[in-house]
Design a protein that fits this description.
This protein is α/β, with parallel strands linked by helices. It has one domain: TIM Barrel (Alpha-Beta Barrel), CATH 3.20.20.220. It contains 21 helices and 8 strands. It has helices at about 1-10, 35-50, 50-55, 55-70, 70-80, 80-85, 90-105, 125-145, 170-180, 190-200, 210-230, 245-260, 280-295, 310-320, 330-350, 365-375, 395-405, 415-430, 430-435, 440-455, 460-470; strands spanning about 105-110, 155-160, 235-240, 270-275, 300-305, 355-360, 385-390, 405-410. It has an 8-stranded parallel beta barrel with strand order 1-2-3-4-5-6-7-8, surrounded by 8 helices. Strand 7 (about 385-390), helix 17 and strand 8 (about 405-410) form a beta-alpha-beta unit. The chain starts with a helix and ends with a helix. Converts proline to delta-1-pyrroline-5-carboxylate. Its cofactor is FAD. Its EC number is 1.5.5.2. Keywords: FAD, Flavoprotein, Oxidoreductase, Proline metabolism. It comes from Ursus americanus.
Length: about 475
Protein backbone atom coordinates (compact mmCIF):
# COMPACT_ATOMS: atom_id res chain seq x y z
CA UNK A 1 0.00 0.00 0.00
CA UNK A 2 2.71 2.47 1.00
CA UNK A 3 4.84 1.87 -2.08
CA UNK A 4 1.84 2.27 -4.41
CA UNK A 5 0.74 5.41 -2.60
CA UNK A 6 4.25 6.83 -2.89
CA UNK A 7 4.21 6.14 -6.63
CA UNK A 8 0.91 7.95 -7.04
CA UNK A 9 2.23 10.91 -5.07
CA UNK A 10 5.37 11.12 -7.13
CA UNK A 11 3.37 11.10 -10.35
CA UNK A 12 0.98 13.84 -9.18
CA UNK A 13 3.22 16.10 -7.08
CA UNK A 14 4.93 19.26 -8.20
CA UNK A 15 3.83 22.79 -9.00
CA UNK A 16 2.52 23.84 -12.37
CA UNK A 17 5.24 25.18 -14.64
CA UNK A 18 2.87 27.83 -15.98
CA UNK A 19 2.51 29.72 -12.70
CA UNK A 20 0.55 29.63 -9.50
CA UNK A 21 -2.60 27.55 -9.51
CA UNK A 22 -5.02 27.63 -6.56
CA UNK A 23 -5.03 24.35 -4.68
CA UNK A 24 -8.25 22.36 -4.60
CA UNK A 25 -9.30 21.21 -1.13
CA UNK A 26 -12.17 19.06 -2.40
CA UNK A 27 -11.04 15.83 -0.75
CA UNK A 28 -9.61 14.41 -3.94
CA UNK A 29 -6.50 13.27 -2.08
CA UNK A 30 -8.61 11.06 0.23
CA UNK A 31 -8.17 8.24 -2.28
CA UNK A 32 -4.70 7.82 -0.74
CA UNK A 33 -6.21 6.65 2.55
CA UNK A 34 -7.88 3.37 3.45
CA UNK A 35 -11.62 2.98 3.92
CA UNK A 36 -11.18 2.09 7.58
CA UNK A 37 -9.18 5.25 8.23
CA UNK A 38 -11.80 7.43 6.56
CA UNK A 39 -14.66 5.77 8.43
CA UNK A 40 -12.97 6.26 11.79
CA UNK A 41 -12.14 9.87 10.94
CA UNK A 42 -15.77 10.62 10.06
CA UNK A 43 -17.15 9.02 13.22
CA UNK A 44 -14.60 10.62 15.54
CA UNK A 45 -14.93 14.11 14.04
CA UNK A 46 -18.72 13.90 14.40
CA UNK A 47 -18.35 12.84 18.03
CA UNK A 48 -15.89 15.62 18.77
CA UNK A 49 -18.27 18.20 17.30
CA UNK A 50 -20.83 17.21 19.96
CA UNK A 51 -20.44 19.82 22.76
CA UNK A 52 -21.43 17.59 25.76
CA UNK A 53 -18.73 15.07 24.87
CA UNK A 54 -16.06 17.80 24.82
CA UNK A 55 -17.33 19.56 27.96
CA UNK A 56 -17.66 16.41 30.07
CA UNK A 57 -14.93 14.34 28.42
CA UNK A 58 -12.96 13.49 31.56
CA UNK A 59 -16.09 12.56 33.51
CA UNK A 60 -17.31 10.38 30.65
CA UNK A 61 -13.93 8.65 30.47
CA UNK A 62 -14.05 7.86 34.21
CA UNK A 63 -17.64 6.63 33.89
CA UNK A 64 -16.67 4.41 30.96
CA UNK A 65 -13.84 2.81 32.94
CA UNK A 66 -16.15 2.05 35.87
CA UNK A 67 -18.89 0.62 33.65
CA UNK A 68 -16.81 -1.31 31.09
CA UNK A 69 -13.56 -1.90 32.93
CA UNK A 70 -10.20 -0.40 32.08
CA UNK A 71 -9.35 -2.98 29.39
CA UNK A 72 -12.52 -2.65 27.30
CA UNK A 73 -12.74 1.11 27.85
CA UNK A 74 -9.11 1.45 26.75
CA UNK A 75 -9.71 -0.71 23.66
CA UNK A 76 -12.63 1.51 22.61
CA UNK A 77 -10.54 4.66 23.06
CA UNK A 78 -7.65 3.21 21.08
CA UNK A 79 -9.99 2.28 18.25
CA UNK A 80 -11.53 5.75 18.16
CA UNK A 81 -10.24 9.03 19.61
CA UNK A 82 -6.77 7.81 20.59
CA UNK A 83 -6.27 6.08 17.25
CA UNK A 84 -7.40 9.15 15.33
CA UNK A 85 -5.30 11.81 17.07
CA UNK A 86 -2.33 9.98 18.68
CA UNK A 87 0.68 8.31 17.06
CA UNK A 88 0.97 5.57 19.69
CA UNK A 89 2.66 4.78 22.96
CA UNK A 90 5.94 3.09 22.04
CA UNK A 91 8.73 4.34 19.80
CA UNK A 92 7.89 1.63 17.28
CA UNK A 93 4.25 2.70 17.12
CA UNK A 94 5.28 6.32 16.61
CA UNK A 95 7.68 5.31 13.86
CA UNK A 96 4.96 3.33 12.13
CA UNK A 97 2.63 6.33 12.20
CA UNK A 98 5.36 8.62 10.86
CA UNK A 99 6.24 6.22 8.04
CA UNK A 100 2.59 6.19 6.99
CA UNK A 101 2.54 10.00 6.99
CA UNK A 102 5.74 10.12 4.97
CA UNK A 103 4.21 8.02 2.19
CA UNK A 104 1.51 10.71 1.97
CA UNK A 105 4.07 13.52 1.68
CA UNK A 106 3.58 14.67 5.30
CA UNK A 107 6.09 15.25 8.11
CA UNK A 108 5.96 14.77 11.88
CA UNK A 109 5.87 17.45 14.56
CA UNK A 110 6.08 15.47 17.79
CA UNK A 111 4.52 16.84 20.98
CA UNK A 112 4.98 15.57 24.55
CA UNK A 113 1.47 15.72 26.09
CA UNK A 114 2.64 17.24 29.37
CA UNK A 115 1.97 20.67 30.84
CA UNK A 116 0.94 22.40 34.03
CA UNK A 117 -2.51 23.93 33.84
CA UNK A 118 -2.81 27.35 35.54
CA UNK A 119 -5.73 26.20 37.70
CA UNK A 120 -4.20 22.87 38.68
CA UNK A 121 -2.67 22.04 42.04
CA UNK A 122 0.77 23.56 42.49
CA UNK A 123 3.56 21.06 41.91
CA UNK A 124 6.01 20.64 44.80
CA UNK A 125 9.75 20.32 44.31
CA UNK A 126 11.64 19.97 41.06
CA UNK A 127 11.05 16.26 40.49
CA UNK A 128 7.96 16.71 38.27
CA UNK A 129 9.72 19.24 36.04
CA UNK A 130 12.89 17.13 35.89
CA UNK A 131 10.78 14.17 34.76
CA UNK A 132 9.30 16.32 32.00
CA UNK A 133 12.80 17.49 31.08
CA UNK A 134 13.83 13.87 30.52
CA UNK A 135 10.70 13.33 28.40
CA UNK A 136 11.64 16.36 26.25
CA UNK A 137 15.12 14.98 25.67
CA UNK A 138 13.60 11.66 24.62
CA UNK A 139 11.28 13.54 22.25
CA UNK A 140 14.30 15.23 20.66
CA UNK A 141 15.95 11.85 20.13
CA UNK A 142 12.74 10.31 18.79
CA UNK A 143 12.16 13.25 16.43
CA UNK A 144 15.63 12.70 15.04
CA UNK A 145 15.46 8.91 14.95
CA UNK A 146 12.13 8.49 13.18
CA UNK A 147 13.34 10.50 10.18
CA UNK A 148 16.22 8.15 9.49
CA UNK A 149 13.63 6.25 7.42
CA UNK A 150 13.11 7.28 3.78
CA UNK A 151 10.72 10.18 3.31
CA UNK A 152 10.56 13.92 2.72
CA UNK A 153 13.71 15.76 3.69
CA UNK A 154 13.80 19.17 5.36
CA UNK A 155 13.74 20.59 8.85
CA UNK A 156 13.11 18.31 11.81
CA UNK A 157 10.69 20.04 14.17
CA UNK A 158 9.17 19.31 17.59
CA UNK A 159 6.86 21.19 19.95
CA UNK A 160 7.97 22.43 23.36
CA UNK A 161 5.63 23.44 26.18
CA UNK A 162 7.46 25.75 28.59
CA UNK A 163 4.97 25.09 31.40
CA UNK A 164 6.18 21.48 31.43
CA UNK A 165 9.59 22.76 32.56
CA UNK A 166 8.69 25.74 34.76
CA UNK A 167 5.73 26.51 37.00
CA UNK A 168 2.76 28.59 35.88
CA UNK A 169 2.87 30.41 39.23
CA UNK A 170 6.42 31.59 38.50
CA UNK A 171 5.35 32.67 34.99
CA UNK A 172 2.46 34.67 36.45
CA UNK A 173 4.77 36.43 38.92
CA UNK A 174 7.33 37.18 36.23
CA UNK A 175 4.61 38.52 33.92
CA UNK A 176 3.36 40.87 36.64
CA UNK A 177 6.91 42.12 37.19
CA UNK A 178 7.68 42.50 33.48
CA UNK A 179 4.70 44.81 33.06
CA UNK A 180 6.01 47.22 35.69
CA UNK A 181 8.17 50.21 34.65
CA UNK A 182 11.90 49.73 35.18
CA UNK A 183 11.83 45.92 35.20
CA UNK A 184 13.34 45.54 31.73
CA UNK A 185 16.99 45.60 32.78
CA UNK A 186 16.69 43.10 35.59
CA UNK A 187 14.67 40.67 33.49
CA UNK A 188 16.24 41.27 30.09
CA UNK A 189 16.71 38.39 27.61
CA UNK A 190 20.45 39.21 27.62
CA UNK A 191 20.71 38.65 31.36
CA UNK A 192 18.76 35.40 31.24
CA UNK A 193 20.77 34.14 28.27
CA UNK A 194 24.02 34.85 30.13
CA UNK A 195 22.70 32.97 33.17
CA UNK A 196 21.71 30.03 30.96
CA UNK A 197 25.13 29.89 29.33
CA UNK A 198 27.24 30.40 32.45
CA UNK A 199 25.12 28.46 34.93
CA UNK A 200 25.69 31.17 37.52
CA UNK A 201 22.93 31.96 40.01
CA UNK A 202 20.45 34.58 38.90
CA UNK A 203 18.81 36.74 41.57
CA UNK A 204 15.64 38.62 40.65
CA UNK A 205 14.44 41.06 43.29
CA UNK A 206 10.72 40.40 42.76
CA UNK A 207 11.18 36.70 43.58
CA UNK A 208 11.85 35.03 46.92
CA UNK A 209 14.70 32.57 47.48
CA UNK A 210 12.68 29.50 46.50
CA UNK A 211 11.36 31.18 43.35
CA UNK A 212 14.85 32.30 42.32
CA UNK A 213 16.08 28.74 42.74
CA UNK A 214 13.19 27.44 40.63
CA UNK A 215 13.89 30.07 37.96
CA UNK A 216 17.52 29.02 37.81
CA UNK A 217 16.57 25.34 37.52
CA UNK A 218 14.00 26.19 34.82
CA UNK A 219 16.56 28.16 32.81
CA UNK A 220 18.95 25.24 33.05
CA UNK A 221 16.30 22.78 31.81
CA UNK A 222 15.34 25.00 28.88
CA UNK A 223 18.97 25.58 27.94
CA UNK A 224 19.84 21.88 28.06
CA UNK A 225 16.83 20.94 25.92
CA UNK A 226 17.82 23.56 23.33
CA UNK A 227 21.45 22.44 23.47
CA UNK A 228 20.50 18.81 22.91
CA UNK A 229 18.04 19.73 20.14
CA UNK A 230 20.70 21.79 18.37
CA UNK A 231 23.16 18.89 18.57
CA UNK A 232 20.53 16.57 17.06
CA UNK A 233 19.50 19.13 14.39
CA UNK A 234 15.95 19.41 15.77
CA UNK A 235 14.21 22.79 15.81
CA UNK A 236 12.03 23.69 18.82
CA UNK A 237 8.62 25.28 18.28
CA UNK A 238 7.60 26.77 21.64
CA UNK A 239 3.84 26.82 22.24
CA UNK A 240 2.06 30.00 23.29
CA UNK A 241 -0.38 29.80 26.19
CA UNK A 242 -2.53 32.30 28.13
CA UNK A 243 -1.98 36.06 28.01
CA UNK A 244 -1.23 36.12 31.75
CA UNK A 245 1.68 33.74 31.07
CA UNK A 246 2.85 34.72 27.58
CA UNK A 247 5.06 37.73 28.50
CA UNK A 248 7.14 35.49 30.77
CA UNK A 249 7.18 32.69 28.19
CA UNK A 250 8.29 35.12 25.46
CA UNK A 251 11.05 36.40 27.73
CA UNK A 252 12.35 32.85 28.17
CA UNK A 253 12.06 32.16 24.43
CA UNK A 254 13.88 35.41 23.62
CA UNK A 255 16.70 34.36 25.95
CA UNK A 256 16.96 30.98 24.23
CA UNK A 257 16.86 32.69 20.83
CA UNK A 258 19.75 35.00 21.74
CA UNK A 259 21.84 31.92 22.48
CA UNK A 260 20.70 29.55 19.72
CA UNK A 261 19.46 31.73 16.84
CA UNK A 262 22.70 33.56 16.18
CA UNK A 263 23.93 34.16 12.63
CA UNK A 264 26.41 31.30 12.78
CA UNK A 265 23.95 28.68 14.03
CA UNK A 266 22.25 27.86 10.73
CA UNK A 267 18.82 29.38 10.99
CA UNK A 268 16.36 29.54 13.91
CA UNK A 269 16.53 26.62 16.32
CA UNK A 270 14.03 28.20 18.71
CA UNK A 271 10.70 29.46 17.35
CA UNK A 272 7.93 31.31 19.18
CA UNK A 273 4.19 31.02 18.59
CA UNK A 274 1.97 34.03 17.88
CA UNK A 275 -1.81 33.91 18.38
CA UNK A 276 -3.78 36.00 15.88
CA UNK A 277 -6.90 36.04 18.05
CA UNK A 278 -5.22 38.53 20.41
CA UNK A 279 -5.60 42.21 19.55
CA UNK A 280 -1.94 43.13 19.98
CA UNK A 281 -0.41 40.21 18.06
CA UNK A 282 0.37 42.03 14.82
CA UNK A 283 2.24 44.81 16.62
CA UNK A 284 4.16 42.39 18.85
CA UNK A 285 5.07 40.27 15.85
CA UNK A 286 6.26 43.33 13.91
CA UNK A 287 8.45 44.50 16.79
CA UNK A 288 9.89 41.04 17.36
CA UNK A 289 10.72 40.53 13.67
CA UNK A 290 12.41 43.95 13.44
CA UNK A 291 14.34 43.38 16.68
CA UNK A 292 15.65 40.03 15.42
CA UNK A 293 16.67 41.68 12.15
CA UNK A 294 18.55 44.47 13.96
CA UNK A 295 20.31 41.98 16.23
CA UNK A 296 21.25 39.72 13.32
CA UNK A 297 19.31 36.82 14.85
CA UNK A 298 17.39 34.22 12.90
CA UNK A 299 13.65 34.43 13.52
CA UNK A 300 11.25 31.50 13.66
CA UNK A 301 7.47 31.84 14.02
CA UNK A 302 4.54 29.48 14.28
CA UNK A 303 1.43 31.50 13.43
CA UNK A 304 -1.87 30.23 14.86
CA UNK A 305 -5.33 31.66 15.31
CA UNK A 306 -5.37 30.73 19.02
CA UNK A 307 -7.19 28.36 21.32
CA UNK A 308 -7.86 29.99 24.70
CA UNK A 309 -10.71 32.31 23.74
CA UNK A 310 -13.25 31.40 26.45
CA UNK A 311 -10.64 31.34 29.21
CA UNK A 312 -9.17 34.70 28.17
CA UNK A 313 -12.57 36.39 28.21
CA UNK A 314 -13.45 34.79 31.55
CA UNK A 315 -10.23 36.05 33.15
CA UNK A 316 -10.78 39.55 31.72
CA UNK A 317 -14.32 39.65 33.17
CA UNK A 318 -13.13 38.37 36.53
CA UNK A 319 -10.41 41.03 36.84
CA UNK A 320 -12.43 43.80 35.22
CA UNK A 321 -9.82 44.32 32.50
CA UNK A 322 -10.14 44.83 28.78
CA UNK A 323 -10.85 41.72 26.75
CA UNK A 324 -7.54 40.96 24.95
CA UNK A 325 -9.17 38.94 22.18
CA UNK A 326 -10.52 39.93 18.79
CA UNK A 327 -14.23 40.73 18.55
CA UNK A 328 -15.21 37.68 16.49
CA UNK A 329 -13.93 35.00 14.12
CA UNK A 330 -13.94 37.36 11.16
CA UNK A 331 -11.75 39.85 13.04
CA UNK A 332 -9.43 36.99 14.02
CA UNK A 333 -9.20 35.95 10.37
CA UNK A 334 -8.31 39.50 9.33
CA UNK A 335 -5.63 39.57 12.04
CA UNK A 336 -4.26 36.23 10.84
CA UNK A 337 -4.17 37.52 7.26
CA UNK A 338 -2.26 40.66 8.28
CA UNK A 339 0.23 38.69 10.39
CA UNK A 340 0.69 36.19 7.56
CA UNK A 341 1.43 38.98 5.08
CA UNK A 342 3.90 40.54 7.52
CA UNK A 343 5.80 37.30 8.03
CA UNK A 344 5.86 36.27 4.36
CA UNK A 345 7.33 39.67 3.52
CA UNK A 346 10.02 39.19 6.16
CA UNK A 347 10.75 35.70 4.83
CA UNK A 348 11.14 37.05 1.30
CA UNK A 349 13.59 39.70 2.55
CA UNK A 350 15.62 37.60 5.00
CA UNK A 351 15.58 34.21 3.30
CA UNK A 352 16.90 31.34 5.44
CA UNK A 353 17.25 33.66 8.47
CA UNK A 354 13.44 33.84 8.80
CA UNK A 355 11.20 30.76 9.01
CA UNK A 356 7.44 30.51 9.27
CA UNK A 357 4.94 27.76 10.00
CA UNK A 358 1.44 28.58 8.74
CA UNK A 359 -0.38 26.58 11.41
CA UNK A 360 -3.97 26.78 10.22
CA UNK A 361 -6.94 24.58 9.34
CA UNK A 362 -8.54 27.46 7.44
CA UNK A 363 -8.57 26.90 3.70
CA UNK A 364 -8.53 30.60 2.82
CA UNK A 365 -5.48 31.25 5.00
CA UNK A 366 -3.66 28.37 3.33
CA UNK A 367 -4.62 29.65 -0.13
CA UNK A 368 -3.42 33.15 0.78
CA UNK A 369 -0.09 31.73 1.94
CA UNK A 370 0.48 29.63 -1.19
CA UNK A 371 -0.42 32.49 -3.52
CA UNK A 372 1.81 35.01 -1.74
CA UNK A 373 4.67 32.50 -1.65
CA UNK A 374 4.46 32.25 -5.43
CA UNK A 375 4.22 36.05 -5.86
CA UNK A 376 7.21 36.63 -3.53
CA UNK A 377 9.33 33.87 -5.06
CA UNK A 378 9.45 31.76 -1.88
CA UNK A 379 10.19 28.12 -2.80
CA UNK A 380 7.60 25.49 -1.93
CA UNK A 381 9.99 23.52 0.26
CA UNK A 382 11.88 26.50 1.68
CA UNK A 383 11.60 28.52 4.90
CA UNK A 384 7.76 28.43 4.93
CA UNK A 385 5.89 25.31 6.01
CA UNK A 386 2.34 24.40 6.98
CA UNK A 387 0.98 22.66 10.05
CA UNK A 388 -2.22 20.90 11.04
CA UNK A 389 -3.25 18.50 13.79
CA UNK A 390 -2.90 14.75 13.30
CA UNK A 391 -6.30 13.33 12.45
CA UNK A 392 -7.81 16.61 11.30
CA UNK A 393 -7.85 18.70 8.13
CA UNK A 394 -6.42 15.89 6.01
CA UNK A 395 -8.13 17.23 2.89
CA UNK A 396 -5.89 20.33 3.22
CA UNK A 397 -2.75 18.54 4.43
CA UNK A 398 -2.81 15.93 1.66
CA UNK A 399 -3.45 18.50 -1.07
CA UNK A 400 -0.50 20.58 0.14
CA UNK A 401 1.77 17.55 0.43
CA UNK A 402 0.95 16.34 -3.07
CA UNK A 403 1.65 19.81 -4.47
CA UNK A 404 5.15 19.74 -2.98
CA UNK A 405 4.75 22.01 0.06
CA UNK A 406 6.32 21.17 3.42
CA UNK A 407 3.44 20.02 5.65
CA UNK A 408 3.73 18.94 9.29
CA UNK A 409 1.18 17.12 11.42
CA UNK A 410 1.24 17.87 15.15
CA UNK A 411 1.56 14.44 16.76
CA UNK A 412 1.06 13.75 20.47
CA UNK A 413 2.19 10.35 21.72
CA UNK A 414 2.17 8.43 24.97
CA UNK A 415 -0.06 6.20 27.10
CA UNK A 416 -3.84 6.53 27.34
CA UNK A 417 -3.50 7.93 30.86
CA UNK A 418 -1.12 10.64 29.63
CA UNK A 419 -2.74 11.56 26.35
CA UNK A 420 -6.53 11.40 26.85
CA UNK A 421 -6.64 14.27 29.42
CA UNK A 422 -4.34 16.25 27.10
CA UNK A 423 -6.63 15.60 24.11
CA UNK A 424 -9.72 16.62 26.06
CA UNK A 425 -8.08 19.91 27.13
CA UNK A 426 -7.08 20.58 23.52
CA UNK A 427 -10.62 19.79 22.36
CA UNK A 428 -12.06 22.18 24.95
CA UNK A 429 -9.67 24.89 23.75
CA UNK A 430 -10.39 24.20 20.07
CA UNK A 431 -14.18 23.90 20.11
CA UNK A 432 -14.55 26.20 17.12
CA UNK A 433 -12.09 24.13 15.08
CA UNK A 434 -13.86 20.88 15.92
CA UNK A 435 -17.31 22.29 15.28
CA UNK A 436 -16.03 23.94 12.10
CA UNK A 437 -14.87 20.60 10.67
CA UNK A 438 -18.26 20.10 9.01
CA UNK A 439 -16.75 20.57 5.56
CA UNK A 440 -14.18 17.85 6.25
CA UNK A 441 -16.98 15.56 7.46
CA UNK A 442 -18.92 16.24 4.25
CA UNK A 443 -15.88 15.43 2.10
CA UNK A 444 -15.25 12.23 4.07
CA UNK A 445 -18.89 11.21 3.59
CA UNK A 446 -18.65 11.86 -0.15
CA UNK A 447 -15.49 9.78 -0.51
CA UNK A 448 -16.97 6.88 1.45
CA UNK A 449 -20.20 7.07 -0.57
CA UNK A 450 -18.19 6.88 -3.81
CA UNK A 451 -16.49 3.75 -2.53
CA UNK A 452 -19.82 2.15 -1.80
CA UNK A 453 -21.16 2.95 -5.27
CA UNK A 454 -17.82 2.46 -7.04
CA UNK A 455 -15.59 5.01 -8.79
CA UNK A 456 -17.08 7.32 -11.37
CA UNK A 457 -15.53 7.07 -14.88
CA UNK A 458 -13.37 10.18 -14.51
CA UNK A 459 -11.84 8.77 -11.33
CA UNK A 460 -11.26 5.26 -12.59
CA UNK A 461 -7.67 5.78 -13.62
CA UNK A 462 -5.21 2.86 -13.14
CA UNK A 463 -3.34 4.53 -10.30
CA UNK A 464 -6.56 5.29 -8.46
CA UNK A 465 -7.91 1.77 -8.91
CA UNK A 466 -4.67 0.27 -7.63
CA UNK A 467 -4.70 2.33 -4.50
CA UNK A 468 -8.43 1.74 -3.92
CA UNK A 469 -8.07 -2.03 -4.33
CA UNK A 470 -5.19 -2.26 -1.86
CA UNK A 471 -6.91 0.00 0.66
CA UNK A 472 -10.21 -1.91 0.81
Amino acid sequence: MMLRTCHVLCSQAGPSAGGWQPLSFDGGAFHLKGTGELTRALLVLRLCAWPPLVTHGLALQAWSRRLLGSRLSGALLRASIYGQFVAGETAEEVKGCVQQLQTLGLRPLLAVPTEEEPDSAVKTGEAWYEGNFSAMLRCVDLSRGILETPGPTGNILMQLKVTALTSTRLCKDLTSWIRKPGASLELSPERLAEAMDSGRDLQVSCLNTQQNQHLQASLSRLHRVAQHARAQHVRLLVDAEYTFLNPALSLLVDALAMRWNGPGEGGPWVWNTYQAYLKDTHERLRRAAEAADRAGLAFGVKLVRGAYLDKEREVARHHGTEDPTQLDYEATSRSYSHCLELMLTHVSHRGPMCHLMVASHNEESVRQATKRMWELGIPLDGPVCFGQLLGMCDHVSLALGQAGYAVYKSIPYGSLEEVIPYLIRRAQENRSVLQGARREQKLLSQELWKRVLGPTPERACPGHVAVMWRSL
